[in-house]
């Protein structure tokens, strides 16, 4: 009985081991398939890869006709394989992928050879990627570097080799590869660097194009011409080794003329405005063709505004823990004349003037006092700032003290918080919200008392446009930066301003006088210039996180914000300090040509 039992246990043990082996095998296969499915899930489509996807060039002009920026990339003619020069094909194969016509998308021999050379050199001196793999990277259209992406590129390479011929793969690659200075494809590169189509390029010129494939930005003639020419010689040497050119040709090479490119794409150091223009353009036209966009930006005012912001920020920014600034200058009918979205476009392309929603602080009081004037208040009415508590909220003046009684106008020009809250409560927050809405500030809550002190977040461009309504005699215009858009000789769009009266002339006159006195005697004194007729209002949010000054004269309105992207408090910065000083710096000795 015991013996039989042991035998039985042994039998079942063998079966269990066999089942476990099969289970592991199946599990491994299932896991492998699952991984493949996961990797394939977000692979890009290659069905339209043969299509010519050239993007139109878009040129943006200032109001004086100067070029501000060029958008879109330069594409030459999309050439079939039969039209590509044989010398170019041989040069690319010789330097990039000698076994291109032999491998199946991934050159395992090339990978092992590169790994050996890199190990011996102690650094990366060779790469093992094939032309097919490089085309895979182009298809992904993003520079992500990860293990997952490596596997996906390999899978895509196998798919490309399975669907397309070698000639088709090489054709797609040479028509799409980036070659620096906005050039995509070998024909565009030839036209940019040699001022000729690729079919007319010399042996040395196609060798230079092939040389740039490794690192087009680093090997450009502007950045590293000596190294570019050394690699050109290496291309020609490899072509000779592969039998593509004779010894005689190799011994008689010449250095071709390479036309240097101006790396500047326009006049703007900080092209926040042209980025905004590209977004606004899509409201009017579909960018499917070459476009010229004529804007309202005044280049010399843009330069002056940038200098003014930089000057004041360099003096006070660091000591006051103020890292960012934004500004919008517009005509009083809301045509944007200059725009700054941050202190450095190179460091951050986020446009704080257009997209950042921040608390405007006391600059929001414009809508409280406007609504109050429209609902029975007068400038000489008496108000007070004795302490008040609304629910769990007890508003305070910035001085932490109360003055007592004062006039309605004095409460505005001295930016008294408690008096403002009482005025808003008396007329009703719904009236404040409605007034703001008429001037382009939408969605202001009607049941949060703190909105009267600017707790509702807004964009600088919208606040500046709201103040421009007072400067424009009560007529509201949607802010815009585009005058017209053309293609060739055809005009696709022309700006038409549809002004809407949102404030009566009588109320405008009163508000205008109150803002003039704010600059003369109130919180905006630092923005005043002798002999100038400036009007405006300061704004400071809680804990000095945001500071604004928005002011205007008879021709233009300027809104300025300073603060920090991480919402850190500044060191006592109010709208009456840095923003007001930037405003004054900009308008000092400003001469406006007729």
Automatic annotation (TrEMBL):
<dbReference type="Pfam" id="PF00912">
    <property type="entry name" value="Transgly"/>
</dbReference>
<protein>
    <recommendedName>
        <fullName>peptidoglycan glycosyltransferase</fullName>
        <ecNumber>2.4.99.28</ecNumber>
    </recommendedName>
</protein>
<dbReference type="InterPro" id="IPR023346">
    <property type="entry name" value="Lysozyme-like_dom_sf"/>
</dbReference>
<feature type="domain" description="Penicillin-binding protein transpeptidase">
    <location>
        <begin position="326"/>
        <end position="553"/>
    </location>
</feature>
<keyword id="KW-0378">Hydrolase</keyword>
<feature type="transmembrane region" description="Helical">
    <location>
        <begin position="20"/>
        <end position="39"/>
    </location>
</feature>
<comment type="similarity">
    <text>In the N-terminal section; belongs to the glycosyltransferase 51 family.</text>
</comment>
<keyword id="KW-0328">Glycosyltransferase</keyword>
<keyword id="KW-0645">Protease</keyword>
<keyword id="KW-0808">Transferase</keyword>
<feature type="domain" description="Glycosyl transferase family 51">
    <location>
        <begin position="65"/>
        <end position="239"/>
    </location>
</feature>
<keyword id="KW-0812">Transmembrane</keyword>
<keyword id="KW-0511">Multifunctional enzyme</keyword>
<keyword id="KW-0472">Membrane</keyword>
<dbReference type="Pfam" id="PF00905">
    <property type="entry name" value="Transpeptidase"/>
</dbReference>
<comment type="similarity">
    <text>In the C-terminal section; belongs to the transpeptidase family.</text>
</comment>
<dbReference type="InterPro" id="IPR001460">
    <property type="entry name" value="PCN-bd_Tpept"/>
</dbReference>
<dbReference type="InterPro" id="IPR036950">
    <property type="entry name" value="PBP_transglycosylase"/>
</dbReference>
<comment type="pathway">
    <text>Cell wall biogenesis; peptidoglycan biosynthesis.</text>
</comment>
<keyword id="KW-1133">Transmembrane helix</keyword>
<keyword id="KW-0121">Carboxypeptidase</keyword>
<dbReference type="InterPro" id="IPR001264">
    <property type="entry name" value="Glyco_trans_51"/>
</dbReference>
<dbReference type="InterPro" id="IPR050396">
    <property type="entry name" value="Glycosyltr_51/Transpeptidase"/>
</dbReference>
<dbReference type="InterPro" id="IPR012338">
    <property type="entry name" value="Beta-lactam/transpept-like"/>
</dbReference>
